[in-house]
Each structure stands twice: as C-alpha cells, then as structure tokens.
Automatic annotation (TrEMBL):
Name the record gives this protein: GntR family transcriptional regulator
GO MF entries: DNA binding; DNA-binding transcription factor activity
UniProt-listed InterPro entries: Tscrpt_reg_HTH_GntR (IPR000524), WH-like_DNA-bd_sf (IPR036388), WH_DNA-bd_sf (IPR036390)
Zinc in keyword set: no
Source organism: Lachnoclostridium phytofermentans
Pfam families in alphabetical order: GntR (PF00392)
Residues of the HTH gntR-type domain: 11-79
Keyword field: DNA-binding, Transcription, Transcription regulation
Length: 126
C-alpha cells in the first residue's frame, strides 16, 4: 500500500494516515492478517515523526481495525460490534448531512453520491 501525505492539508497527518489505511482495507488493498509497516519504517518512508504514526495506529486499534502485537507489530484485525458501528456512523453522518443541507445539496444528490462511492468499493476485488 502506498501512503501519500498532503503536508499542506488542514487535516492532521495522523488522520490522513488513518483514513488511507481504512480505505486500503475497504478496497482490499490490504487484508485482514496483513502486517502494516513498523512505526519506525513507516515514519521514515513518509518523512514524518514516529509519534504521528504511533498515534494513527493507536486510533486504528481503538476503532477495531488493527491489533498491536509485540512480535508482529500492527496487524489488520477487524474487530467490531455492528450495532455500535452503526450508531457511530449515524452520529458522523448527521454532521456530514447537516453540512450538505447547509450547502443546498439535495437528498437525491446525496443518494447518488453514496451509491457511486459504494460501487467503487464493491467493484474492487472484495
């Protein structure tokens, strides 16, 4: 998996890294059981601080995307409670949909956008 960081973005680097790993899982670019690079290795490859990588990995662990193993490092290990995941997604989507309403984006446009994104993920090799 190739990680690209936009150093000019307003989004924190650890969030960019987290998001790219989640997208990699969703597109099957990385799969359950795959090892992520070590904190030191990824930090050196991207040119960022090790603490930034560690923070991204810790958040991914808390969110149930990775397991941190002393011997194997960070390993993709999906562990989720679907009911809790839906509740969290609903909370996040409320804000996103509120932003859409403020920008006069219609329900139909939102549905088209969501369908398009879901097709992107389902067309991958999952």
């Amino acid at each position: 998996m190739i990680v690209t960081i936009d150093f000019n973005s307003d989004e924190a680097i650890y969030i960019q890294l987290r998001n790219q790993i989640i997208l990699g899982i969703a597109t099957s670019e990385i799969r359950e059981g795959d090892n992520l690079p070590s904190v030191r290795e990824l930090a050196e490859n991207i040119g960022i601080n090790m603490h930034t990588v560690n923070k991204a990995y810790t958040i991914l662990k808390q969110e149930g995307f990775v397991k941190l193993d002393r011997r194997r490092g960070a390993v993709i290990a999906l562990d989720y409670d679907k009911i809790a995941a839906i509740a969290e997604l609903k909370s996040q989507m409320r804000v996103i949909l509120a932003q859409a309403i403020c920008k006069d984006i219609s329900c139909e446009e939102i549905h088209e956008l969501m369908d398009s994104i879901m097709r992107e993920f389902s067309s991958d090799s999952r």
